[in-house]
C-alpha cells in the first residue's frame, strides 16, 4: 500500500482498489529497518509510518507569473498554501491542453508523475496490462523492461506505476537531480512512446503456451504476469470484498468493471485492443502531469514540450469523463462467496457484511471534507456511535478493511462493515446500523468529541513526512482525475475553520447531514460475503472450461503460432541484452552520505536518553524502549497482545472512552509495539523490548507526558468484556493480509527454522502467531490472562530497564527536558535486568503452511553474518545482484511469479523469497541453484552490474527519514551515525573480486543453519520432489 500523510489519511480510510506494478514495497521507514527485515505485521504498519522531514522554510518563488507562457505552457494559477508552506502552479499546455501541476516546496524528495484517466468497459484488465506494457520498452529506451532495470540504476525513493478504478499513474520520487532527470525521460518516453510489443503482451498479459515448450503436442496452459497477479490478488478475501463493493455500489459505468482484470476475462483481451486503447487514453490531451519539490520546473516544461507535446494536436477528452452514478430509488442487496480461509476465523464466523451509501460528488471539496470528519465521528474509536453499537456488543471480529469514507471515485461513499460474524447476525447488523443513525440524529455529538477529532487533524497537518510529495499526489489523484479543484483541497485549515463556523451557526449541522446522506439515502448497498468450500474448485473448473473453449477455437495454423510464440518468448527472455541506452548514475553522484543532525546521549535519572534537535514543526516526539528480556516464555508470547490492548482499556482513573478522548485531543496517539532486536555485532544474541511511541504539539507536551504517566502507572485490564472484545478483534485483524504479504510470512517462517530467536519472531509475528493466538483464545482463562497482562506491565514499566529518545526543535528542548524529568520521577526503578538472550541455532528443516490459495509464497533463510561484520555490505550488494540478474529473470519473467528476490537482514539472516508464485518446488530449486548460476554467469558479475547493485542498496540507506525518527537506528540497534557512514563507505568500495570471494565463502557449500518455507496449497510428493522431510501445518 501507499504511504499516506495523516491529514489525508482521513480522506482515504476506505481501502483503495489499486493494482500496482510493484506490489512488494521496495522501501521502508528506516533505511536500517529494511535491512532488518520488518516482520509482516510491522511491514503492514510501516506503510503508514509518518517518516520524515523536509526542512520547510517559507519561500515564495516568483519566477513565474499568471498569464505568461513558458515552453508552451501557459501559467493559469499561482497560489501559496500556508498549511504546507508550498506554492502551487497550475499550467496548461497551449497545444495539447495537458495540465501540469507543479508544487514548489523546499523539500529535497522531488516527485514526478504522469496520470491518465483510464475508464475500462470490461474486466479484461486492459488498463492494468497496458500499465505493465508501457514500462516494457519505448522508442528511446528499447530495452526489455527498463522499469526493472532502472530500479538498480537510480537512487529513487519511490518508483512504481499503478492502475486504479479510473486512472493509471506513473509516479517516482528521488532526492538526486541527475536521477530525477533520468527517470523523467524514461517515464515520459514509456507512456507516450511505448513499443507495446506483441511478445511483451504475451509475457505481461496472458498467453496460451505448451506445457512443455519443446513439445508442440503437449497440453496448453494459460500464463502471464498480470493473469497470475490477479489470481493472487483475489486470493485475499478483503480484496475480493472491496472490489465487489466498488463494482456493485457504482455499477452503471466504468466502476462496474474490474480495472485490474478478472482472471476469467483477461484472456478475452487482444493485443490490438491494447494498442488502440493506448492511442486513445494515453493521448497528451487525456494526461495530467504532476511535479513536486525544489528542482527547476523550467527544465521539466522544456523537456515535456519539446520532446512529447509540441506538434501533437489537441483532442477533446470528454470520452474519458465519468458521469455521476444515477441514484437508486430502492436499496440493493448483493451476496458473494469467498474462499474459505483456513488461517481465518471458524467456518461459521467467516462472513463479512457492509452497508455502502453513495455520498457527494468528489469535486464538492468542502462537503467531501465534512463528510469525512463526520464519518470519523461515527466510526473511529470508542466514543463513536458505530463503535458503541456494532463493535462493543462483540458479535464480530471488528470493522472490516472497507470501512470508512471512500473518496477514490467520482461519487464518494460511506462504508461500515464487519468481518468475522455469523450469517445469523447479518440481520442484526442492518437493524443496528439504522438504530445507530437514528440515535445519532436524535442525540447529536458532544462538542468535546468533535473537537478532539479536529485537534487531531490539525496536529497531523504539522506532522512532517519525507514522502509528503507522494502522499499529496496519491491523495489528490482521484479529485484531479475528475477535474476537481485540487489546489483548494490543500487548504485544510480553511476547511476546518469553515466547518467550525457551520457547526457554531447550526446546532443540528451534522445531524442534518446524517439525515440526508445516511437516513434518507436510497442508494444503499448491503453486501454480504460467505466462504464457500468449493470456491477454489469452482474457479479451477471455470478456468479449465475457459481454456477448453480457447483450445477448441484453435486451428492448425494458430496452434503452430502458439508453439512458435512460446519458443520466441523464451528465446527473448534468455537473450543477452544491451542496456547501454539506459542512463545510470555514477559514483560521483552518490558519494556523499546524507547528513543527519547530531545525536546526544545523556543519562537522565539513570535513564539513557538520546536527544536529537531537528526542525520538527513545533512537535515533540518521544520513544520509550522497555527491555522485556526478563519476562517468562509464557509472558513473552502475550506481549504482542499486550501492546495491542494496553492503550485501549483506559486506566484505573479514566474509563476507555474518556482516556481515548484525552489522547486524541492532546497527542498523535500513544502506541506500543514489541521489537526483537538482534545484536548486530555477533548475531549470537538478541534482546526483546516494548517501545512506546508518542508525539504532540510542543504546547501539549506536559499533557502528553501526563497521559503517558497515567497509562504506565494506572493501566488496567479489569474490564473483562472489553478485553474479550479486543482479543477477538485482534485475532481477526492479524489473519487479514497474510495472502497479500505472503512473502514476508514465508521469510519469517523460513527464519523460524534457523534459530530460536527466529522461532520466537514467528510466534510473535508470523503465521505461528496466528495459530498461537487462535488456540490461546479457545482455551482462554480470562482471570489468568488479566493477571498475566498486569504482571507484564508491572515488570516492564520501570526506568531501570528503559531507554528514551526525544526529538524536538532546538528552542523547545529545555522545556521538553524539564517535563521529561518530571515524568521520569514518577516511573519506579526496579532491579536492572539487561539480559541478552543467547541464540540457539537449529539443524536445517522445511515447513509448509497450508493455505487454500491458488499461488505460493516461498522463502529460504540461512545464517550468514550480521550488520557489523565486514562482509555484510558485500552480501547486501550480492543480494541485490542476485535479485536483479538471476531471480527476477528466472522466477518472474520465465516462471511467472509476480515477484522474487533476496535480501540480508541486520541479524545476518540471508533470505530468498517469491511472491504470488505459480510454482513452489521449482522456485526452491532456483534458490538452491544460485551458486551454480553465479558460476556459469561469471561474466555478468562486472563493474557496472556491481555498481548497480550498490545503487539498489543506497536507495534504502539514503532514503529520507522523518524528523521524529531520526536516530532510530542508534536508539534501537546501537548503530551510531559513524558506523553508518563506515558501512556506507565500505559498501561503495566493494570490488568485483570481493563479491566473487563472498560467493565462494557463503554460497559454495550448503549453510549449516537454514530453513525453507512454503505458504500455499498442498503439494503432492513434496518430500520426494525436494529430497527433504517437510513439516506441514494447516
Ligand atoms: Zn500489475
From TrEMBL:
Q: Where is the signal peptide?
A: none
Which cofactors does this protein require?
Zn(2+)
Write out the annotated subcellular location: Mitochondrion
Q: Tell me yes or no: is Zinc among this UniProt entry's keywords.
A: yes
Q: Which InterPro entries match?
A: Metalloenz_LuxS/M16, Pept_M16_N, Peptidase_M16_C, Peptidase_M16C_assoc, PreP_C
One Pfam family matching this protein: Peptidase_M16_C
Which molecular function term from Gene Ontology is one that the record holds?
metalloendopeptidase activity
UniProt GO cellular component terms: mitochondrial matrix
Coiled-coil regions in this chain?
A: none
What keywords does the record list, in alphabetical order?
Hydrolase, Metal-binding, Metalloprotease, Mitochondrion, Protease, Transit peptide, Zinc
Q: Where is this region: Disordered?
A: 30-52
Specify the domain of life of the species encoding this protein.
Eukaryota
The Peptidase M16C associated domain covers 529-776
Q: Which GO terms describe its biological process?
A: protein processing
What family is reported?
Answer: Belongs to the peptidase M16 family. PreP subfamily.
Q: What is the name listed in the Swiss-Prot or TrEMBL entry for this protein?
A: Presequence protease, mitochondrial
